[in-house]
Each structure stands twice: as C-alpha cells, then as structure tokens.
Amino acid sequence: MIRPIFALSGLLGLLGLLVTPPPAQAGEARAERVIEVRPGQSGRLEVTNEGTRFVRRPKAAPRVGQVVHADREARDVPRLPPRELTELIHSAASDNDLDPALVESVIQAESAWNVRAVSRRGALGLMQIMPATARDLSLEQPFDAAQNIRAGTEYLRRMLDQFDGDVVLALAAYNAGPTTVVTYGGVPPYRQTVSYVRRVLRLWRGDAAPEVVPVAGPPRSAPSRDPGRPVRWTTSGERLHLTNVQ
Asked: pTM of the predicted model, to two decimals?
C-alpha cells in the first residue's frame, strides 16, 4: 500500500537554516520565507523560498514565578506576612505527616514564595499546582495561600505514599508527574526534573543532601521503533508524488 509522506525533514531542515530570518520581538510582525518543494522543468525537483508571508510572533509565555497581571484573581490576592505563611505550612504539614522544612523547600523551589506565581505550563500559586491536579484536590482558589498549601501538601503526601516514602521519587513525581516516574522506573532523565530534585534536597537537607541524584535509564514501556523506509519522489506533469514503497 502506498503511504504518502508529506515532510522531507532532513532536506527542509537544512534549507531552513539557510533562510531562517532573525527572530522578531514578542508581538511584532515579520516577513517569513516559506519553503516549497515543486516539480520544475525537465522533471527536476525545485526547492524554493520565493513565497513570503507575514507572521506575528505570539507574546512570550510567563516565566516560572512571574505574575500574570491579566489574571484579576491573581492580581487581587494579598501577600501574606512570613509568620502567617509559616503557621499555614506547619498546620498543613502536620495534617499530612510531613516535615514543614520539606514543604518550605518545595515552595522555595516552585515559586520563590510568590503566591501569584504562574508557570509556563500553567501551574499556579505557592506550590505550583496544575489545573487538573487542582480539580482532583478540590482546590477552588489556587492563589489563596492557605488553600494552595493545603492542596500542595496533600499532593506531596500522595506522592510519598505512592513511592513508599522515597523522597527523591516523590519529588520527581511532584515535578514531572507520577506516571512519568513509573514509566521510567525512577527519576526521569529530564534536566529540569533532576535539577529540581537536587535543589529541593539541598534546601531541605543542606550539606547532608546527596551530591548526585540517581537518574533512570530508558523508559520501561518504550515502544519499539519502526526504522521506516527510505523516501523517494517522482514527478508526473505538474504533480509531485512521494512514497516509501520499495
């Protein structure tokens, strides 16, 4: 059976390096060359960037810990004094059988104590809780410090219970998700996750923190990859036909 292939990634990727214009600032429009593959004269294949279109670069996503000023709910949340935050943390940690110092370390790594923090992926508040997790935890006001800490400590407790009290795996799951940790059978080899686990441990344990975080190998459930077939093209009149059939 013929299966058409619509991307010549290697060839077009190389050509893209040659015609890629300088980046525009967020929100600015720029002219962008469009690479086209089309049959030319005498059956030759032409690759051209004659087409031009104008594109507008989207505004930059919020950085970790950055306040989203467009969110009225976040903008109107008052900042709490450190003493009140400490009391909330100790209360929630006690209810979930957690070391308050561990919770404080997670908050420092997640949001740097910014109750209005929003991450690139949409995690919210002090303990950077994702919207789906917030719904699961019945968290109605993620920018409310008390509710956020309550939900975040409950979720951290769940991760510890799921991974038999292993703090390293629990922190990795808090950052990358428990499914990812189960899939890899350990700390996934994600630079951001490894850095996060190391930082929380250092904040929590100080000099007693391990120097190296053990990282898992390939995922246990990695699907077998089809090596694929080479792609060839033919032309018929003005039509271009791509196929990987031998």
From this structure: 0.62
Tens digits of residue pLDDT in 2-17: 444 444 445 445 444 4
Which residue is associated with the tokens 């991974």?
A: 163
Domain locations in the chain as residue ranges: 9-59+227-243, 61-162
Cα dist from 119 to 106, 140, 222, 223, whole Å: 15, 18, 29, 31
Amino acid sitting at position 171:
L
Q: Quickly name the fold that domain 61-162 has.
A: Lysozyme (1.10.530)
End-to-end CA distance of the chain: 10
User: Which residue(s) pair with 48 in the sheet?
Assistant: 36
| Structural tokens at position 178 | 């428990």
Between CA 146 and CA 80 the distance in angstroms is 10
* Residues acting as catalytic residues: 110
